[in-house]
Every structure is written in structure tokens, then in C-alpha cells.
Amino acid sequence: MKPISTVVEQMKPSGIRKFFDLASTMDDVISLGVGEPDFATPWHICQAAMQSLADGKTHYTANRGLLELREEIAKFHHEHYDQNYDPKTEIVVTVGGSEGIDISMRALLNPGDEVIVMDPNYVAYEPAVALAGGVCVPIVLTKENEFKLKPEDLQAAITDKTKAMIINFPSNPTGGVMTYDDYAKLVPIIKESGIYVVSDEIYAELSFDQKFASLAQFNEVRDQIIVINGFSKAFAMTGWRLGYILADAPVSKAITKIHQYIIMSAPVTSQYAAIEALKNGYPDVEMMREEYLHRRNLLVNRLNAMGLHTNMPHGTFYVFADIRKTGMDCETFCNELLEKEHVACIPGNAFGEHGEGFIRISYAYSLNHIKEACVRIQHFLESIHYQK
Ligand code: PMP
């Protein structure tokens, strides 16, 4: 038999999956591992989907998605984020943000092109770059700098071969965010180099403490920015598999070329649900955000009180807890915590080499669940005689 694709063969299995497989063999596990909202999709959104089925809306849509949905997306982004995209030529509705990441890489890259990625970063970026023939060039983000991207690091990473950069703020796994002023310092470098920036903004609605900002708000570089977003996190709609890409018309056209061959159109029922979400679902988003905020405050305060010094994350539903003072590496820490106390967290190195020394804890779980997990983590730290 002939070998399968070398790129696929060399792809590492996801460090998140590896850990879940282990946790699933144990009883009574409190998992703080999963990256999806614990809320069910708001009922009025489900009803809109059911109504669309009753109305016989069971066919393919336009390749880019229903125009009504694209118009709602354009309106939402204009009103909430001051981002301006033409629903007819600059928006493509995709199968989750996941498809968005994949097809934007395929639309941009030639073999050997360099793509700057953050370390730590979300697990899907490096495989997407590799599958599109690109080469990842990491920039290390540090806790000491609140996991933000510094202009001097960006400048130093750019070479003649750089085609694009992938960023994700608010960030999975670190919870780090960039402000408008932080981005303003990157804009001249991005403009001058001409690189594309794929900005994964899937956690935009889960911004706490400060207003969400985006590079797409800067007109000077708007044609170089590709925004990935979707319904999974903000509206608790992970299973509906719906996202979208916002990009300047020529780039959007290239992306649509790929989408039309590999997907045709995103699921129609989900598109009707999404129209309802954008029209009437914002109070639900606000309610969930409030709840996440309570949980974040409780979790971060408890972790710091235990001596696991943790930045206050300004977005997402993740905390990237610093375990360096325990002297354990992150995999040993997570394995032992799971074995002794039946609490599942994700080792930071699942998100890149420089995630070592950290563990990702998700607070997309009920307060009671989080409180019980904290009791167990405290107990674990006592068992290893941890000195704060
Ligand atoms: N980007 C980031 C940073 C994520 O955390 C996720 C989901 N875990 C996605 C993209 C993909 O989300 P979806 O495909 O459900 O829209």
C-alpha cells in the first residue's frame, strides 16, 4: 500500500483529545477541559430553526449563505465592532470558524510561504497552515506581557517569505486581549510589510473589562485583514456548525471559490437559526457573559489564593494558570491532578511549546462545578506540599 500524505502523517494528535481520552476512562471526573459553552442554545433560536423546517426550507442556499443572514451579520458587525463589510461581496458563511481558518489559509498560501503564529495558540492553526503548504513561524507570548503581541516581536518575525499572520484575541488558551491602542502600534508594520492577518475573533462577545477591538477597524489595513467569527461561543451554538469570514472583496472572492467546491453552502437550518440569533439573541449573549464573568472572578480569586498566580483574563472562558512554582511540568501536573483528585484540565503545552508551565482551565461550567474543582485542586496542592 502507498503511504498517506506526509503532511498528515507528521501532524501531531491534539493534546486536548489525548487528555480527554484518559479522563473518559475514569469515574467522578470534574472536567474543566472543554472549550464550549455549557448553556443550551436559547430556545427562540431553536424554534426559528424548527419553523424553517416546517416551512420547507431544506435546500442548498447561495454559496456565500442566505443574503438575509449576511445582511444581519454586516449590521451586527457595524453596530457592535465598527467593522464594515458588504454583505454581497465581502461575507462568506462557513461551517464554523473552523472552516474559516482552513479555507482562508488555502486561499492565501503558496507552498513554502511563512505564516506567523502565536505560541501558545489555538490548536487548529498549525495543521491548517501545514495542509495549505505553509510554514509556521512562532512568536512567543508571555504572561509577563499579559499574552499580548508586541510590535517589536512582529517586526522581528517578518521576512520576505511572510505571507500572513494568524492572531486570536481574546485568546484561547490564554484569555489575553489586545486593545485598540495595542493594535494601533501594529498597524504601520502590517501596512509596510503587506502581509495578510487572519484575525480569529470567535470570542469577541466574551470580552470583559474592556471594549473589544479589531485590526479590521483600521482603514489603512482593512484590505489585508481577514476576520473569522461565528455563532459557537457567543450564542452557545457549537453543534450548529456555523461561522463566517469577513474580508475585502477580492480576498473574499478567492475564499468563496474554495468554499463553493468543498462545502457548497453551510447548513440551511443553522442559517435560519443564526438569523434569529442576530435579530433577537443579544440579551441572551449579555446574560451568558454576565454569568461567565462571575465564574471567572471566583475561579481566578481562588487560584491566586491557593498560590497559583494567574492573570485576570479579559476575555474568553479560559484561565491560563501559572504552575511554574510547583516545579512540575504541565503534563505531570495535569496527569497527577487527574489521577489523585479526578479533575481534568489541559496541559499548556497542548497549545505550543511555550505553554509549558501553565494549565488551561475552562470556566464554561456551573459555579458549583467550579467550586468543587477548586476544593480538589487545593487538596492536590496540599498533597504535593506546595509552598505558596
Ligand atoms: N477558534 C478558536 C480560537 C476556538 O477556540 C474555536 C473552538 N474551540 C474555533 C475557532 C472553532 O469554532 P467553531 O468551528 O465551532 O466556530
Automatic annotation (TrEMBL):
This is Aminotransferase. It comes from the Bacteria. InterPro entries: Aminotransferase_I/II_large (IPR004839), AspAT/PAT-like (IPR050596), NHTrfase_class1_PyrdxlP-BS (IPR004838), PyrdxlP-dep_Trfase (IPR015424), PyrdxlP-dep_Trfase_major (IPR015421), PyrdxlP-dep_Trfase_small (IPR015422). The keyword Transferase applies. Pfam families: Aminotran_1_2 (PF00155). It comes from Absicoccus porci. Keywords: Aminotransferase, Pyridoxal phosphate, Transferase. One of its GO terms (molecular function) is transaminase activity. SUPFAM superfamilies: PLP-dependent transferases (SSF53383). The keyword Iron does not apply. PROSITE patterns: AA_TRANSFER_CLASS_1. Its EC number is 2.6.1.-. Belongs to the class-I pyridoxal-phosphate-dependent aminotransferase family. Residues 28-377 form the Aminotransferase class I/classII large domain.
